[in-house]
Amino acid sequence: MPQLGTLLLLSLLIHACAVICAADTHIIVDTTQGRVKGYQISSQSGHSLQVFLGIPYAEPPVGDLRFSRPIPAGSWRGIHDATFYRSICPQRLQSVQSFSFGYNFNNTSEDCLYVNVFAPTNGSKLPVMVWIHGGAYTLGSASEYDGRMLASQDIVVVTVDYRLGVLGFLSTGDDAAPGNYGHLDQLQALHWVKDNIGQFGGDPDKVTIFGQSSGGAGVSTHMFSPLAKGLFRGVIAQSGISVSPFAFYRPPYKASDTARNLGKIVGCNHSSSQALVTCLRGKSTDDLVNARPQGAPMTSTYVPVVDGYYILDFPENLLGQGHVLDPALMTGTVLNEGADMIDYISGVEKGVSAETAQQAIHSWSRRYLNQTTIAYKAAACHYNIHSADPMVNRQNLIAFWSDYDYVTPNIKMADMYHKIQPNTYMYSFEYRSVNQPDPQWEGVLHATELYYVFGCPFSHTMPCPWKGCNRTWCSGWGVSPLDKTISNEMMTLWTNFAKSLDPNSGANRHQWPHYSVSANRSYLQIRDTSDVQQGLRPSAANFWNQYFPNLLAGKVRQHECHGGVIIG
Length: 568
Prior knowledge:
This protein is α/β, with parallel strands linked by helices. It has a domain at about 15-325: Alpha/Beta hydrolase fold, catalytic domain (Rossmann fold, 3-Layer(aba) Sandwich). It is about 35% helix and about 15% strand. Strands 1, 2, 3, 4, 5, 6, 7, 8, 9, 10, 11, 12 and 13 form a 13-stranded mixed sheet that branches. A two-stranded antiparallel ribbon has the order 14-15. A hairpin with a 4-residue loop joins strand 12 and strand 13 (about 530-535). Helix 11 packs parallel to helix 13 (about 390-415) and helix 13 crosses helix 16. The protein is globular and about 70 Å long. The relative contact order is 0.11. Mean pLDDT is about 90; it is low at about 1-25.
């Protein structure tokens, strides 16, 4: 008879084969361009998924196609190998090595317009969620985001790579290089979804687009583009919205000035826009990506612009005029969005001095040019950055950046949009795991919710046979039972929204009410025990959405400040 050790080894081998052998099964699907080969994987929980990595949705934007609108991918003969991630779009290697893939990563290429598809096996007419990653319009990749766990909720998940930084958003302000190529890439990917997702078990008429940070701003900007009509029915904007200060070049700053500055740096100092662009097309990718031209202080160096083609005016103007598509909207922020905006301050872990806090606010206020003094006095008063307590100053600086860039623009959008589309929801994510590796003082910082939305606490429960799968941020934390509970809750809310445009379901239906000004701006507070609250950050919302713009416009006078309270 076999020894006990032999039986144990045999049992382990059988178990391993049950997982790995299933993971090695391949599946072939027909698309409008040709056949693609992907993986079929299963898990102990009984979920069976098909995964396709690196399906081209547009022609490589190289040569004369650099700084041009995307062209749909052509067809191919034979079978396209969709079993591995393609190169990510060009970006500064130091950034991507620090924040995404590790110090030894260097696999970038302009040939990067691909989608990844995660879908239940043998699904039919399933809702579809299309993910647009964030990264300040300059860094990141779809291959950071593992769609297996969301797809296990009977959803087809598509993640999209799109052009970034100078290659995605450079604009000369005219027809030579109108800009917004990264957003047009996203729309081209949505056209691919419309034409092909049925072959993967998805319903092209039940598409929800979701994204975080600049990705959240991006998906909510598509709501204002006539080119996006009919491509989606739901939008989930996480920690980024189209009316945020960082989401667009806005007057008096011009993207064309940044393009000219770039030209001077790389040796393309031409008088005409067309000559400038022709010269830039001849430069190496590294020359363009690593150049650091001066841009607008309110944004990343390269961001979307009003171009008269993709978008006709600023979203806040179009929203006021009612010129917006009307998808259902779910939007929200995290508790300490601005924490990573101050981690550069020396000794920040011990707090921030009043002098340093004042310098930070004054540096921000310079973006308002001849109104710098007005902006500084108003913000310094509202956030009371004169405290002798460095911990108070640190927390107020975090609140300042959180409110300015994220929270109050979200409230502004929801306040206006729910009057057009009542099917609007707002959340505030406020859960911090005991396993979260970031310093305690940062709290629930920007992007924390992604760990739970993408089901990272369950990433080990099914095979992942492709190279790079375990290189994502999913692999860095320990997992507590409460982490699993929060992740389950968020995956359920997000996928319910994709399925029915209502995050509630079953017995919990209407636990999370629609957002409405008349109903006290109800929102879902997601924390250890989630609950519905009313009126997120009301004082900050009043300051940024009412008082401050009226102050700059000269409609109200500068009121006096007493202990962090504006009086008058």
